[in-house]
Amino acid sequence: MSDTQRFSFYKGSPEDATSVARVLQTGLWIGAILALIAGISVLAWPGASATVVVVIFGLYFLIRGVVRVVVGIFAPGLTGGGRALSVLIGLLLVVVGIFALATPGSVLELIGLLIGVTWIIDGVATLIETGRASSRGITVALGSVSIIAGVVVLFVPAAAIAVLVVLGGILLIVVGVAQITAAVALGRVAKS
Q1: Across residues 81-88, what is the average pLDDT?
Q2: Is the dihedral of CA 170, 161, 48, 120 positive or negative?
Q3: What is the pLDDT averaged over residues 19-41?
Q4: Can you give the residue ranges of every domain in the chain?
Q5: Angle at 23 between CA 185 and CA 25, to 5 degrees
Q6: For the range 91-95, what are the long-range contacts, defined as Cβ-Cβ under 8 Å and sequence gap of 24 or more?
Q7: Which residues cross the membrane (predicted)?
Q8: How much is the pTM?
């Protein structure tokens, strides 16, 4: 059994498995670039208003959600459960992104909670989707970083929003680097 056939929620031929790996790799690259841009932007302008920071996070979650929905709909060889999970998580990310963009200033604390919960759910989904592929260690690390980031964000007091901003920026960069690492590893699996 090839490494790509060991993905959870996978069914199909080895060619489809390679296609799935490439689609997932593309999604990881997009997520990594978005996370790095958002994280660096937040850290470069720590004095920016909280509203600007919420908009940056909103854009990140909106685009990341759209990528997950597209992967869930169009990735070849995914099972119904895999498609449903990807689309559901993607829709959640899109809703959080739209909510953040629509009301950035009035519900900052709620946005922080939604960001934390979304990171936790995305991390859990990443862990579930990992399967038994040889790149599992990197993907488990990516999911774990996302879960830890979400938990940390949930427990940062609302009064310390400045800490949330800096911590969020740092965590976005960490998530971006983890996604780059996972994308590179997945690229190696797709070539095997």
Answers
A1: 87
A2: positive
A3: 81
A4: 13-191
A5: 25
A6: 91/65, 92/65, 92/118, 92/121, 93/61, 93/62, 93/64, 93/65, 93/68, 93/118, 93/122, 94/61, 94/62, 94/65, 94/66, 94/69, 95/65
A7: 20-44, 50-71, 83-102, 108-128, 140-164, 170-190
A8: 0.58
